[in-house]
Amino acid sequence: QSVINKIAAGEVIERPASVVKELVENSLDAGATRIDVSVAKGGIEFIRVADNGCGIAFEDLELAVASHATSKISDAEGLFHVRTLGFRGEALASIAEVSHLRLRSRTPDSDSGGEIYVEGGLVRSIAPCGCPVGTVVEVRQLFFNTPVRRKFLRSTTTELGHISETVAKLALAHFRVHFTLTHNDRPVLQLPAAGDLLERIAALYGQELADALIPVSSEDGAVRLYGYVAHPAFSRPNAKMQFLFLNGRAIRDRNLQHALNEAYRGLLTVGRQPVAFLVLEMPPEMVDVNVHPTKQEVRFLDSGRLYSQLLSTLRREFLSSDL
Ligand code: ADP
Ligand code: MG
């Protein structure tokens, strides 16, 4: 059982950035308006995510770190209407399986909070404690009991890079939330609540880029597409600055990537990649997010139609802007 748990954990938790992603997604699902992420040594040594969300009731603490326990979906039917970022009830259990995890939480209607401490999947203690409303999760000694996984971790700089990319993506998808990221007590990202996506882009990547972005938007039935694409002069040697968000989560989709490149065809020098921040909103029934545990890939009900929408929208915006 324990081996199976560790294998399952490895599928979801690949590196410190995966921990950060899962914890921040939980904070967002909890309705937090402020999320503070703090890591040490690229997250290998220490990760803390603190939020001001709805908290976890004392009697639910143990359940929260148990495998396949989710408060977000109660039946199979629910899987087709996922509106939260999490729904498998695996993340906390998986992280706790391969680390020392301390979770402190308090709900708004409770006078005091509770703390649970789990070591390699074993609950060591549960006790009341004083803490503000919200949740703080601290993860130490990641992969202490899975030496192979630990060995494959890269340098502090590389792991921190993954973490800050992860936080940036979540912060773009949820620009109204106040985010901070600190590494070894030094601030890396400071992102006060933004009024719109463009403001968040400016805070992350600079006003110069934000000023040069071309807004795009269109609607096709229940599908809403909006966001920004950059002038070809801002193209990059890689695709790292291509963001696609679907209903609040960052996704990868080859088909849509192809539509983006198609729209820029003839405008970019060879080897350059467009910069784009695209947001898709559609009813959850129109997409299957239950494809892979890390949920980066999704399956659209009608991907052909989506491809056409993206391509025609981008082409129209390019024609109307003076490139
Ligand atoms: P999932 O997000 O798929 O439900 P998780 O393992 O990530 O599964 O979390 C398990 C449960 O713990 C959640 O369903 C939620 O009820 C609770 N939980 C976890 N993190 C938080 C948080 N930051 N604030 C409030 N509740 C949380
Ligand atoms: Mg979750």
Large-scale geometry: globular
Class inferred from helices and paired strands:
alpha+beta
State the domain count.
2
Strand order of the largest sheet: 5-4-3-6-2-1-7-8
Distance between the termini: 59 Å
Number of strands: 15
What are the bound molecules?
adenosine-5'-diphosphate, magnesium ion
What percentage of residues falls in helices of 4 or more residues? Answer: 25-40%
CATH topology of the largest domain: Heat Shock Protein 90
| Secondary-structure element order, N to C | HHEEHHEEEEHHEEHHEEEEHEEEH
How many helical elements? 10
Instruction: Supply the CATH class of the largest domain.
Output: Alpha Beta
How large is the radius of gyration?
20 Å
Mind telling me which CATH architecture of the largest domain this is?
2-Layer Sandwich
Residue windows where pLDDT falls under 50 for at least 5 positions: none
Largest sheet: 8 strands, mixed
CATH homologous superfamily heading of the largest domain: Histidine kinase-like ATPase, C-terminal domain
Give a written overview of the molecule.
- Helices cover 31% and strands 27% of the residues.
- The protein is of the alpha+beta class and 323 residues long.
- The chain has two domains: 2-191, Heat Shock Protein 90; 207-320, Ribosomal Protein S5, domain 2, CATH 3.30.230.
- The N and C termini lie far apart (59 Å).
- It binds adenosine-5'-diphosphate and magnesium ion.
- Magnesium ion binds next to helix 2.
Write the layout of secondary structure elements.
Elements lengths: L1 H11 L3 H14 L4 E7 L5 E6 L9 H4 L26 H7 L2 E7 L6 E7 L2 E8 L4 E7 L6 H5 L4 H18 L4 E6 L2 E6 L5 H9 L1 H5 L1 E8 L2 E8 L11 E5 L2 E2 L3 H10 L12 E6 L5 E2 L10 E2 L2 H18 L3
Parallel strand pairs: 1-7, 11-13
Antiparallel strand pairs: 1-2, 2-6, 3-4, 3-6, 4-5, 7-8, 9-10, 10-13, 11-12, 14-15
The structure holds adenosine-5'-diphosphate and magnesium ion.
Adenosine-5'-diphosphate binds next to α2 and α4.
